[in-house]
Automatic annotation (TrEMBL), chains A, B:
This is Bifunctional protein FolD. The keyword Cytoplasm does not apply. GO terms for biological process: L-histidine biosynthetic process; methionine biosynthetic process; purine nucleotide biosynthetic process; tetrahydrofolate interconversion. Pfam families: THF_DHG_CYH, THF_DHG_CYH_C.
Length: 282, 282
Protein backbone atom coordinates (compact mmCIF):
# COMPACT_ATOMS: atom_id res chain seq x y z
CA UNK A 1 0.00 0.00 0.00
CA UNK A 2 2.34 2.72 -1.19
CA UNK A 3 0.50 5.67 0.26
CA UNK A 4 1.94 9.06 -0.49
CA UNK A 5 3.70 10.84 2.35
CA UNK A 6 2.37 13.90 4.12
CA UNK A 7 3.90 16.94 2.46
CA UNK A 8 5.69 19.12 5.01
CA UNK A 9 4.92 22.47 3.44
CA UNK A 10 7.72 24.88 4.28
CA UNK A 11 5.95 27.82 2.69
CA UNK A 12 3.04 27.36 5.08
CA UNK A 13 5.34 27.05 8.12
CA UNK A 14 7.27 30.14 7.02
CA UNK A 15 4.07 32.12 6.60
CA UNK A 16 2.88 31.15 10.05
CA UNK A 17 6.21 32.25 11.58
CA UNK A 18 6.12 35.55 9.70
CA UNK A 19 2.50 36.09 10.75
CA UNK A 20 3.55 35.99 14.43
CA UNK A 21 6.27 38.56 13.73
CA UNK A 22 4.02 41.28 12.34
CA UNK A 23 2.64 42.62 15.59
CA UNK A 24 6.00 42.23 17.31
CA UNK A 25 7.57 44.41 14.62
CA UNK A 26 4.75 46.93 15.10
CA UNK A 27 5.25 46.96 18.87
CA UNK A 28 8.96 47.58 18.33
CA UNK A 29 8.11 50.41 15.92
CA UNK A 30 6.04 52.08 18.62
CA UNK A 31 9.20 52.15 20.72
CA UNK A 32 11.13 53.67 17.82
CA UNK A 33 12.97 50.45 17.01
CA UNK A 34 13.12 49.05 13.49
CA UNK A 35 14.71 45.59 13.60
CA UNK A 36 17.55 45.57 11.11
CA UNK A 37 19.54 42.77 9.53
CA UNK A 38 22.93 43.54 8.03
CA UNK A 39 24.00 41.17 5.27
CA UNK A 40 27.63 40.91 4.29
CA UNK A 41 28.51 39.50 0.89
CA UNK A 42 32.11 39.06 -0.17
CA UNK A 43 32.86 38.58 -3.85
CA UNK A 44 30.58 38.08 -6.79
CA UNK A 45 29.35 34.49 -6.63
CA UNK A 46 25.96 34.72 -8.38
CA UNK A 47 24.07 32.27 -6.17
CA UNK A 48 25.40 33.92 -2.99
CA UNK A 49 24.25 37.25 -4.39
CA UNK A 50 20.82 35.73 -5.04
CA UNK A 51 20.56 34.36 -1.48
CA UNK A 52 21.50 37.72 0.00
CA UNK A 53 18.97 39.50 -2.21
CA UNK A 54 16.24 37.03 -1.20
CA UNK A 55 16.98 37.66 2.47
CA UNK A 56 16.93 41.42 1.98
CA UNK A 57 13.62 41.20 0.11
CA UNK A 58 12.11 39.03 2.83
CA UNK A 59 13.10 41.65 5.41
CA UNK A 60 11.59 44.46 3.38
CA UNK A 61 8.26 42.72 2.84
CA UNK A 62 7.85 42.37 6.59
CA UNK A 63 9.02 45.83 7.62
CA UNK A 64 12.41 44.70 8.86
CA UNK A 65 15.25 46.99 7.87
CA UNK A 66 18.18 45.60 5.96
CA UNK A 67 21.66 46.91 5.46
CA UNK A 68 23.56 45.47 2.54
CA UNK A 69 27.34 45.39 2.65
CA UNK A 70 29.13 44.12 -0.44
CA UNK A 71 32.90 43.67 -0.35
CA UNK A 72 35.19 42.88 -3.27
CA UNK A 73 36.56 39.39 -3.96
CA UNK A 74 40.06 40.40 -2.81
CA UNK A 75 38.94 41.55 0.67
CA UNK A 76 41.31 40.33 3.39
CA UNK A 77 40.25 38.55 6.57
CA UNK A 78 41.31 41.65 8.54
CA UNK A 79 39.16 43.95 6.40
CA UNK A 80 36.16 41.64 6.71
CA UNK A 81 36.62 41.36 10.48
CA UNK A 82 36.85 45.15 10.70
CA UNK A 83 33.58 45.52 8.74
CA UNK A 84 31.88 43.05 11.08
CA UNK A 85 33.20 44.92 14.14
CA UNK A 86 31.70 48.14 12.83
CA UNK A 87 28.34 46.39 12.46
CA UNK A 88 28.70 44.98 15.99
CA UNK A 89 29.08 48.52 17.26
CA UNK A 90 26.27 50.01 15.18
CA UNK A 91 23.26 50.36 17.53
CA UNK A 92 20.78 50.33 14.63
CA UNK A 93 21.89 46.86 13.47
CA UNK A 94 20.37 43.93 15.39
CA UNK A 95 21.54 40.98 13.37
CA UNK A 96 24.53 40.22 11.16
CA UNK A 97 24.58 37.63 8.42
CA UNK A 98 27.85 36.81 6.70
CA UNK A 99 26.91 34.97 3.52
CA UNK A 100 28.62 31.60 3.31
CA UNK A 101 30.89 30.68 1.54
CA UNK A 102 33.40 33.51 1.49
CA UNK A 103 36.32 33.46 -0.99
CA UNK A 104 38.94 30.84 -0.13
CA UNK A 105 41.57 33.46 0.72
CA UNK A 106 39.54 34.51 3.77
CA UNK A 107 39.62 32.68 7.12
CA UNK A 108 35.87 32.10 7.35
CA UNK A 109 35.97 30.81 10.93
CA UNK A 110 37.81 33.93 12.10
CA UNK A 111 35.26 36.13 10.31
CA UNK A 112 32.30 34.23 11.83
CA UNK A 113 33.87 34.52 15.29
CA UNK A 114 34.01 38.30 14.94
CA UNK A 115 30.19 38.49 15.01
CA UNK A 116 29.09 39.40 18.53
CA UNK A 117 26.91 36.74 20.18
CA UNK A 118 24.05 39.27 20.61
CA UNK A 119 23.92 39.81 16.83
CA UNK A 120 24.67 36.25 15.71
CA UNK A 121 21.13 35.71 14.39
CA UNK A 122 22.38 33.20 11.83
CA UNK A 123 23.94 31.05 14.57
CA UNK A 124 27.44 30.71 13.14
CA UNK A 125 29.77 31.44 16.07
CA UNK A 126 31.36 28.63 18.10
CA UNK A 127 29.85 30.07 21.26
CA UNK A 128 26.42 30.10 19.60
CA UNK A 129 26.92 26.46 18.66
CA UNK A 130 27.87 25.48 22.21
CA UNK A 131 24.90 27.34 23.62
CA UNK A 132 22.72 25.43 21.15
CA UNK A 133 24.25 22.12 22.20
CA UNK A 134 23.61 22.94 25.86
CA UNK A 135 20.06 24.13 25.15
CA UNK A 136 20.92 27.73 26.09
CA UNK A 137 21.00 29.49 22.73
CA UNK A 138 18.99 32.55 21.78
CA UNK A 139 19.77 32.03 18.11
CA UNK A 140 20.59 28.50 16.99
CA UNK A 141 21.71 28.12 13.37
CA UNK A 142 18.77 28.94 11.11
CA UNK A 143 18.50 25.76 9.05
CA UNK A 144 18.58 23.43 12.09
CA UNK A 145 16.08 25.70 13.83
CA UNK A 146 13.91 25.60 10.69
CA UNK A 147 13.94 21.80 10.69
CA UNK A 148 12.82 21.78 14.32
CA UNK A 149 10.14 24.40 13.53
CA UNK A 150 8.72 22.25 10.73
CA UNK A 151 8.59 19.26 13.09
CA UNK A 152 6.87 21.37 15.72
CA UNK A 153 4.36 22.79 13.25
CA UNK A 154 3.37 19.31 12.09
CA UNK A 155 3.51 17.89 15.63
CA UNK A 156 6.27 15.40 14.80
CA UNK A 157 7.67 14.32 18.16
CA UNK A 158 11.42 13.69 18.42
CA UNK A 159 11.37 12.19 21.91
CA UNK A 160 12.46 8.56 21.95
CA UNK A 161 12.78 8.49 18.16
CA UNK A 162 15.95 7.51 16.36
CA UNK A 163 17.14 10.39 14.20
CA UNK A 164 19.85 9.82 11.61
CA UNK A 165 21.55 13.01 10.45
CA UNK A 166 23.64 12.79 7.29
CA UNK A 167 26.23 15.55 7.42
CA UNK A 168 28.37 17.13 10.13
CA UNK A 169 29.00 20.73 9.09
CA UNK A 170 29.33 23.36 11.85
CA UNK A 171 26.17 25.19 10.80
CA UNK A 172 23.97 22.27 9.82
CA UNK A 173 24.80 18.66 10.65
CA UNK A 174 26.36 19.33 14.05
CA UNK A 175 23.76 21.75 15.40
CA UNK A 176 20.76 19.81 14.08
CA UNK A 177 22.17 16.68 15.74
CA UNK A 178 22.53 18.64 18.99
CA UNK A 179 19.01 20.09 18.79
CA UNK A 180 17.41 16.71 18.11
CA UNK A 181 19.38 15.24 21.01
CA UNK A 182 18.06 18.00 23.26
CA UNK A 183 14.55 17.07 22.11
CA UNK A 184 15.29 13.60 23.50
CA UNK A 185 15.82 11.85 20.18
CA UNK A 186 18.55 9.24 19.95
CA UNK A 187 20.86 10.74 17.33
CA UNK A 188 23.26 9.12 14.88
CA UNK A 189 25.48 11.52 12.97
CA UNK A 190 26.77 10.15 9.65
CA UNK A 191 29.17 11.61 7.10
CA UNK A 192 31.41 10.86 4.16
CA UNK A 193 33.49 8.35 6.15
CA UNK A 194 30.47 6.44 7.43
CA UNK A 195 30.40 2.79 6.41
CA UNK A 196 27.10 1.09 5.57
CA UNK A 197 25.12 4.32 5.41
CA UNK A 198 21.98 2.80 3.82
CA UNK A 199 21.65 0.29 6.68
CA UNK A 200 22.02 3.07 9.25
CA UNK A 201 19.41 5.20 7.50
CA UNK A 202 17.08 2.18 7.55
CA UNK A 203 17.10 2.37 11.36
CA UNK A 204 15.85 5.95 11.38
CA UNK A 205 12.44 7.19 12.42
CA UNK A 206 13.64 10.66 11.36
CA UNK A 207 16.14 11.27 8.55
CA UNK A 208 17.83 14.64 8.13
CA UNK A 209 19.72 15.01 4.86
CA UNK A 210 22.36 17.72 5.09
CA UNK A 211 25.05 16.41 2.84
CA UNK A 212 25.00 18.71 -0.20
CA UNK A 213 24.74 15.94 -2.81
CA UNK A 214 21.78 15.95 -5.19
CA UNK A 215 19.23 13.11 -4.74
CA UNK A 216 21.70 11.28 -2.49
CA UNK A 217 19.24 9.57 -0.13
CA UNK A 218 17.50 6.70 -1.91
CA UNK A 219 13.96 5.46 -1.42
CA UNK A 220 15.10 1.96 -0.49
CA UNK A 221 17.24 3.39 2.33
CA UNK A 222 14.13 4.35 4.25
CA UNK A 223 12.28 2.43 6.91
CA UNK A 224 8.59 2.55 5.94
CA UNK A 225 6.98 5.47 7.72
CA UNK A 226 10.18 7.46 8.29
CA UNK A 227 9.99 11.24 8.43
CA UNK A 228 12.35 12.84 5.91
CA UNK A 229 13.70 16.36 6.30
CA UNK A 230 15.75 17.52 3.35
CA UNK A 231 18.07 20.43 4.09
CA UNK A 232 19.82 20.11 0.75
CA UNK A 233 19.60 22.72 -1.96
CA UNK A 234 21.62 21.77 -4.97
CA UNK A 235 21.86 23.33 -8.44
CA UNK A 236 18.62 22.90 -10.35
CA UNK A 237 16.48 23.24 -7.19
CA UNK A 238 17.20 19.68 -6.22
CA UNK A 239 17.45 18.42 -2.63
CA UNK A 240 19.70 15.82 -1.03
CA UNK A 241 16.85 13.30 -1.16
CA UNK A 242 15.47 11.41 -4.14
CA UNK A 243 12.05 12.91 -3.48
CA UNK A 244 10.01 10.83 -5.92
CA UNK A 245 11.53 7.59 -4.67
CA UNK A 246 11.00 8.49 -1.02
CA UNK A 247 7.46 9.77 -1.40
CA UNK A 248 5.86 6.33 -1.28
CA UNK A 249 7.99 5.13 1.62
CA UNK A 250 8.08 8.07 4.04
CA UNK A 251 5.21 9.07 6.32
CA UNK A 252 6.12 12.75 5.90
CA UNK A 253 8.64 14.60 3.74
CA UNK A 254 9.82 18.12 2.95
CA UNK A 255 9.90 18.98 -0.75
CA UNK A 256 12.68 20.99 -2.41
CA UNK A 257 12.02 23.81 -3.12
CA UNK A 258 9.35 25.03 -0.67
CA UNK A 259 10.53 22.80 2.18
CA UNK A 260 13.27 23.74 4.64
CA UNK A 261 14.48 26.75 2.59
CA UNK A 262 11.66 29.25 3.23
CA UNK A 263 11.53 28.31 6.91
CA UNK A 264 15.25 29.02 7.19
CA UNK A 265 14.66 32.54 5.93
CA UNK A 266 11.64 33.03 8.22
CA UNK A 267 13.80 31.86 11.15
CA UNK A 268 16.46 34.41 10.28
CA UNK A 269 13.80 37.14 10.33
CA UNK A 270 12.43 35.84 13.64
CA UNK A 271 15.90 35.89 15.21
CA UNK A 272 16.44 39.46 13.98
CA UNK A 273 13.16 40.57 15.58
CA UNK A 274 14.07 38.75 18.80
CA UNK A 275 17.50 40.41 18.85
CA UNK A 276 15.81 43.82 18.50
CA UNK A 277 13.35 42.92 21.28
CA UNK A 278 16.09 41.69 23.56
CA UNK A 279 18.80 44.26 22.97
CA UNK A 280 17.04 47.28 21.43
CA UNK A 281 19.15 50.04 19.90
CA UNK A 282 22.31 50.03 21.89
CA UNK B 1 35.82 -19.43 21.61
CA UNK B 2 35.27 -16.92 24.40
CA UNK B 3 38.69 -15.34 24.38
CA UNK B 4 39.33 -12.73 27.01
CA UNK B 5 39.45 -9.14 25.85
CA UNK B 6 42.59 -7.05 25.70
CA UNK B 7 42.82 -5.10 28.92
CA UNK B 8 43.13 -1.37 28.22
CA UNK B 9 45.39 -0.50 31.13
CA UNK B 10 44.70 3.08 32.16
CA UNK B 11 47.52 3.11 34.69
CA UNK B 12 49.99 2.37 31.93
CA UNK B 13 48.54 5.05 29.63
CA UNK B 14 48.58 7.57 32.48
CA UNK B 15 52.22 6.77 33.27
CA UNK B 16 53.22 7.24 29.66
CA UNK B 17 51.48 10.65 29.56
CA UNK B 18 53.13 11.71 32.82
CA UNK B 19 56.50 10.51 31.54
CA UNK B 20 56.27 12.95 28.60
CA UNK B 21 55.46 15.79 31.00
CA UNK B 22 58.57 15.49 33.16
CA UNK B 23 61.02 17.21 30.86
CA UNK B 24 58.45 19.79 29.84
CA UNK B 25 57.97 20.71 33.50
CA UNK B 26 61.73 20.91 33.87
CA UNK B 27 62.05 23.15 30.82
CA UNK B 28 59.37 25.43 32.26
CA UNK B 29 61.24 25.48 35.58
CA UNK B 30 64.34 26.74 33.80
CA UNK B 31 62.27 29.69 32.65
CA UNK B 32 61.07 30.28 36.19
CA UNK B 33 57.59 28.87 35.56
CA UNK B 34 56.01 26.27 37.83
CA UNK B 35 52.77 25.05 36.23
CA UNK B 36 50.04 25.41 38.81
CA UNK B 37 46.54 23.95 39.06
CA UNK B 38 44.02 25.64 41.33
CA UNK B 39 41.30 23.33 42.62
CA UNK B 40 38.08 24.78 43.97
CA UNK B 41 35.95 22.63 46.25
CA UNK B 42 32.62 23.90 47.54
CA UNK B 43 31.07 22.13 50.53
CA UNK B 44 32.10 18.98 52.32
CA UNK B 45 31.02 16.07 50.13
CA UNK B 46 33.54 13.39 51.10
CA UNK B 47 34.03 11.85 47.66
CA UNK B 48 34.49 15.29 46.08
CA UNK B 49 37.09 16.04 48.75
CA UNK B 50 38.82 12.76 47.90
CA UNK B 51 38.89 13.56 44.18
CA UNK B 52 40.35 16.99 44.82
CA UNK B 53 43.00 15.54 47.13
CA UNK B 54 43.92 12.90 44.52
CA UNK B 55 44.36 15.61 41.90
CA UNK B 56 46.49 17.72 44.24
CA UNK B 57 48.66 14.73 45.11
CA UNK B 58 49.09 13.85 41.44
CA UNK B 59 50.31 17.41 40.80
CA UNK B 60 52.75 17.29 43.67
CA UNK B 61 54.29 13.98 42.64
CA UNK B 62 55.09 15.45 39.23
CA UNK B 63 56.36 18.85 40.37
CA UNK B 64 53.22 20.73 39.34
CA UNK B 65 52.10 23.33 41.83
CA UNK B 66 48.63 23.15 43.28
CA UNK B 67 46.53 25.74 44.99
CA UNK B 68 43.64 24.42 47.04
CA UNK B 69 40.60 26.61 47.58
CA UNK B 70 37.87 25.24 49.85
CA UNK B 71 34.63 27.18 50.20
CA UNK B 72 31.80 26.50 52.65
CA UNK B 73 28.57 24.71 51.67
CA UNK B 74 26.59 27.97 51.87
CA UNK B 75 28.77 29.84 49.33
CA UNK B 76 26.68 31.84 46.86
CA UNK B 77 27.07 31.73 43.09
CA UNK B 78 28.39 35.31 43.21
CA UNK B 79 31.03 34.44 45.80
CA UNK B 80 32.14 31.40 43.83
CA UNK B 81 32.31 33.43 40.60
CA UNK B 82 34.36 36.09 42.41
CA UNK B 83 36.80 33.43 43.66
CA UNK B 84 37.16 32.07 40.14
CA UNK B 85 37.76 35.58 38.75
CA UNK B 86 40.58 36.10 41.22
CA UNK B 87 42.17 32.85 40.05
CA UNK B 88 41.71 33.96 36.41
CA UNK B 89 43.70 37.09 37.23
CA UNK B 90 46.41 35.34 39.23
CA UNK B 91 49.43 35.03 36.91
CA UNK B 92 50.85 32.10 38.89
CA UNK B 93 47.75 29.95 38.29
CA UNK B 94 47.64 28.19 34.90
CA UNK B 95 44.63 25.94 35.28
CA UNK B 96 41.40 26.07 37.28
CA UNK B 97 39.37 23.03 38.27
CA UNK B 98 35.98 23.53 39.88
CA UNK B 99 35.09 20.18 41.43
CA UNK B 100 31.73 18.91 40.18
CA UNK B 101 29.07 18.74 41.58
CA UNK B 102 28.68 21.97 43.52
CA UNK B 103 25.89 22.34 46.11
CA UNK B 104 22.43 22.63 44.49
CA UNK B 105 22.02 26.24 45.62
CA UNK B 106 24.79 27.31 43.23
CA UNK B 107 24.30 27.91 39.50
CA UNK B 108 26.98 25.49 38.35
CA UNK B 109 26.82 26.58 34.71
CA UNK B 110 27.39 30.22 35.64
CA UNK B 111 30.34 29.23 37.82
CA UNK B 112 31.87 27.09 35.05
CA UNK B 113 31.43 29.95 32.57
CA UNK B 114 33.44 32.26 34.83
CA UNK B 115 36.59 30.21 34.18
CA UNK B 116 38.63 31.96 31.50
CA UNK B 117 39.15 29.85 28.37
CA UNK B 118 42.94 30.04 28.78
CA UNK B 119 42.70 28.36 32.20
CA UNK B 120 39.83 25.95 31.45
CA UNK B 121 42.10 22.90 31.64
CA UNK B 122 39.18 20.70 32.73
CA UNK B 123 37.18 21.66 29.60
CA UNK B 124 33.95 22.72 31.26
CA UNK B 125 33.06 26.04 29.59
CA UNK B 126 30.55 26.20 26.74
CA UNK B 127 33.16 27.86 24.55
CA UNK B 128 35.60 25.05 25.35
CA UNK B 129 32.92 22.54 24.37
CA UNK B 130 32.25 24.29 21.06
CA UNK B 131 35.94 24.47 20.29
CA UNK B 132 36.13 20.74 20.99
CA UNK B 133 33.18 20.07 18.68
CA UNK B 134 34.83 22.11 15.92
CA UNK B 135 38.20 20.45 16.48
CA UNK B 136 39.78 23.69 17.70
CA UNK B 137 40.13 23.15 21.44
CA UNK B 138 43.31 23.44 23.45
CA UNK B 139 41.73 21.67 26.40
CA UNK B 140 38.83 19.33 25.67
CA UNK B 141 37.07 17.89 28.72
CA UNK B 142 39.48 15.56 30.51
CA UNK B 143 37.48 12.33 30.57
CA UNK B 144 36.63 12.43 26.84
CA UNK B 145 40.24 13.34 26.08
CA UNK B 146 41.34 10.42 28.28
CA UNK B 147 39.13 8.02 26.33
CA UNK B 148 40.67 9.21 23.08
CA UNK B 149 44.17 8.94 24.59
CA UNK B 150 43.54 5.32 25.58
CA UNK B 151 42.35 4.55 22.05
CA UNK B 152 45.41 6.24 20.61
CA UNK B 153 47.79 4.43 22.97
CA UNK B 154 46.35 1.05 21.98
CA UNK B 155 46.06 2.02 18.31
CA UNK B 156 42.28 1.62 18.21
CA UNK B 157 41.14 3.46 15.09
CA UNK B 158 37.86 5.35 15.22
CA UNK B 159 37.65 6.17 11.51
CA UNK B 160 34.69 4.49 9.82
CA UNK B 161 33.71 2.69 13.03
CA UNK B 162 30.29 3.00 14.61
CA UNK B 163 30.63 4.40 18.11
CA UNK B 164 27.66 4.27 20.47
CA UNK B 165 27.94 6.69 23.39
CA UNK B 166 25.59 6.13 26.32
CA UNK B 167 25.16 9.47 28.08
CA UNK B 168 24.85 13.09 27.00
CA UNK B 169 26.24 15.20 29.82
CA UNK B 170 27.99 18.48 28.92
CA UNK B 171 31.39 17.30 30.16
CA UNK B 172 31.26 13.66 29.11
CA UNK B 173 28.64 12.28 26.72
CA UNK B 174 28.42 15.33 24.47
CA UNK B 175 32.14 16.07 24.11
CA UNK B 176 33.17 12.43 23.69
CA UNK B 177 30.53 12.10 20.94
CA UNK B 178 31.97 15.21 19.30
CA UNK B 179 35.56 14.02 19.56
CA UNK B 180 34.77 10.58 18.12
CA UNK B 181 32.87 12.27 15.28
CA UNK B 182 35.93 14.41 14.57
CA UNK B 183 37.99 11.20 14.44
CA UNK B 184 35.64 10.12 11.61
CA UNK B 185 33.60 7.64 13.60
CA UNK B 186 29.88 7.43 12.94
CA UNK B 187 28.44 8.37 16.32
CA UNK B 188 25.14 7.47 17.98
CA UNK B 189 24.42 9.30 21.23
CA UNK B 190 22.02 7.47 23.55
CA UNK B 191 20.48 8.49 26.87
CA UNK B 192 17.73 7.80 29.35
CA UNK B 193 14.98 8.41 26.77
CA UNK B 194 16.52 6.11 24.18
CA UNK B 195 14.29 3.22 23.16
CA UNK B 196 15.77 -0.18 22.40
CA UNK B 197 19.18 0.64 23.83
CA UNK B 198 20.52 -2.95 23.81
CA UNK B 199 19.84 -3.27 20.08
CA UNK B 200 21.61 0.01 19.40
CA UNK B 201 24.63 -1.02 21.49
CA UNK B 202 24.72 -4.27 19.49
CA UNK B 203 25.52 -2.18 16.39
CA UNK B 204 28.58 -0.61 17.97
CA UNK B 205 32.20 -1.25 17.11
CA UNK B 206 33.06 1.08 19.99
CA UNK B 207 30.91 1.47 23.12
CA UNK B 208 31.42 4.39 25.51
CA UNK B 209 29.54 4.04 28.79
CA UNK B 210 29.06 7.41 30.44
CA UNK B 211 25.76 6.96 32.16
CA UNK B 212 26.59 6.85 35.88
CA UNK B 213 24.73 3.59 36.61
CA UNK B 214 26.66 0.65 38.08
CA UNK B 215 27.12 -2.37 35.79
CA UNK B 216 24.51 -0.96 33.40
CA UNK B 217 25.90 -2.25 30.10
CA UNK B 218 25.31 -5.99 29.82
CA UNK B 219 27.48 -8.57 28.13
CA UNK B 220 24.73 -9.66 25.77
CA UNK B 221 24.36 -6.06 24.50
CA UNK B 222 27.75 -6.28 22.81
CA UNK B 223 28.59 -7.20 19.27
CA UNK B 224 31.43 -9.76 19.48
CA UNK B 225 34.72 -7.91 19.20
CA UNK B 226 33.42 -4.52 20.30
CA UNK B 227 35.77 -2.14 22.09
CA UNK B 228 34.36 -1.07 25.45
CA UNK B 229 35.39 2.17 27.17
CA UNK B 230 33.88 2.56 30.61
CA UNK B 231 33.86 6.14 31.90
CA UNK B 232 31.66 5.24 34.88
CA UNK B 233 32.88 5.40 38.43
CA UNK B 234 30.18 4.39 40.84
CA UNK B 235 30.29 3.74 44.60
CA UNK B 236 32.24 0.62 45.39
CA UNK B 237 34.73 1.22 42.53
CA UNK B 238 32.25 -0.13 40.01
CA UNK B 239 31.99 1.06 36.41
CA UNK B 240 28.98 1.51 34.14
CA UNK B 241 29.75 -1.79 32.43
CA UNK B 242 29.24 -5.32 33.72
CA UNK B 243 32.93 -5.99 33.32
CA UNK B 244 32.94 -9.75 33.94
CA UNK B 245 30.08 -10.29 31.51
CA UNK B 246 31.69 -8.15 28.80
CA UNK B 247 35.19 -9.56 29.14
CA UNK B 248 34.50 -12.62 26.98
CA UNK B 249 32.63 -10.67 24.33
CA UNK B 250 34.68 -7.50 23.81
CA UNK B 251 37.95 -7.36 21.88
CA UNK B 252 39.26 -4.72 24.29
CA UNK B 253 37.93 -3.20 27.50
CA UNK B 254 38.88 -0.69 30.19
CA UNK B 255 38.65 -1.99 33.76
CA UNK B 256 37.31 0.03 36.69
CA UNK B 257 39.31 1.10 38.61
CA UNK B 258 42.59 1.59 36.68
CA UNK B 259 40.87 2.31 33.37
CA UNK B 260 39.68 5.75 32.28
CA UNK B 261 40.09 7.31 35.76
CA UNK B 262 43.89 7.60 36.00
CA UNK B 263 44.12 8.81 32.41
CA UNK B 264 41.61 11.56 33.21
CA UNK B 265 43.89 12.82 35.97
CA UNK B 266 46.98 12.55 33.75
CA UNK B 267 45.11 14.55 31.08
CA UNK B 268 44.32 17.27 33.60
CA UNK B 269 48.03 17.49 34.47
CA UNK B 270 48.95 17.56 30.78
CA UNK B 271 46.53 20.41 30.12
CA UNK B 272 47.92 22.35 33.08
CA UNK B 273 51.46 21.98 31.73
CA UNK B 274 50.27 22.98 28.25
CA UNK B 275 48.52 26.06 29.67
CA UNK B 276 51.75 27.05 31.40
CA UNK B 277 53.71 26.51 28.20
CA UNK B 278 51.23 28.47 26.13
CA UNK B 279 50.45 31.36 28.43
CA UNK B 280 53.31 31.45 30.96
CA UNK B 281 52.97 33.65 34.02
CA UNK B 282 50.80 36.49 32.91
Amino acid sequence: MPNNALLLDGTKVAESIKETLKERIQALGEKGIVPCLATVLVGSDPSSATYVRMKGNACRRLGIGSRRVVLPENTTTEELVETIRELNEDPAVHGILLQHPVPASIDEREAFEAISIEKDVDGVTTLGYARTAFGLADFPSCTPAAILAIMKHYRIEAEGKHAVVIGRSPILGKPVSAMLLNENATVTTCHSRTRGLPDLVRLADIVVAAVGRPRFVQGDWLKPGAVVLDAGYNPGNVGDVDYEACLGKASAITPVPAGVGPVTIATLLKHTVEAAEKYGNR
